[in-house]
Amino acid sequence: MTGPPAEGRRRRRDLLLSLVVPALVCLVAVVHTVRVDSSDLSTWSGAGFGMFATIDGETTRTVRGFVDVDGVEEEVPLPSSLERAAFEVAVLPTSERAERLAERWADELDLTDARVSVEVRRIAFDGDDLTAGTERVLLVGSAP
């Protein structure tokens, strides 16, 4: 038989343990919100809860490449070998990732005197009439 001090300690321990999970969930939500707002992280990624509130995700973002030769810009298809890198740029679009993708894209196309630009777009809705469109998240290019 346990005495009153042991019973009190058990209750405090149980109370503390019952608060740990909600506190961790709140921490994850706050960290995810900060990452989404500060770095355009897809709300469907990063262990967040935003997936329940938006359609913006890696499957609704597009990564496109453009080659600029002597001022003439043309869209070029993504080589299959770069699909994973493009997916990563779509999920967390940073200038550094997009620049590396643009450089690799130029290498894949064997371009020496052309510039490859990488653009990331996402679906956006007009706040007034809720018409769907796209908005640019990021645009970077490689050096020729």
Give a verbal description of the structure.
With 144 residues, the chain is of the alpha+beta class. It folds into two domains: 4-39; 62-141, no CATH class. Helix content is 41%, strand content 24%. It contains three helices and four strands; from the N terminus they run αββααββ. The protein has helices spanning 4-39, 83-91, 95-108, and strands spanning 62-69, 72-76, 115-125, 132-141. It has a four-stranded antiparallel β-sheet. A hairpin with a 2-residue loop joins β1 and β2 (72-76). The protein is elongated, with a radius of gyration of 23 Å. 18% of the residues are buried.
What is the alpha-carbon Rg in Å?
Answer: 23 Å
Overall average residue pLDDT: 83
Strand content: 15-25%
General form: elongated
Low-pLDDT segments, ≥5 res:
none
Count of helical regions: 3
The helix-strand sequence is HEEHHEE
Record field, number of beta strands: 4
Give the terminus-to-terminus CA distance.
80 Å
Number of domains: 2
Instruction: Give the proportion of residues in helices.
Output: 40-55%
**What structural category arises from helix and sheet content?**
alpha+beta
The largest sheet is: 4 strands, antiparallel
Looking across the biggest beta sheet, what order are the strands in? 2-1-3-4
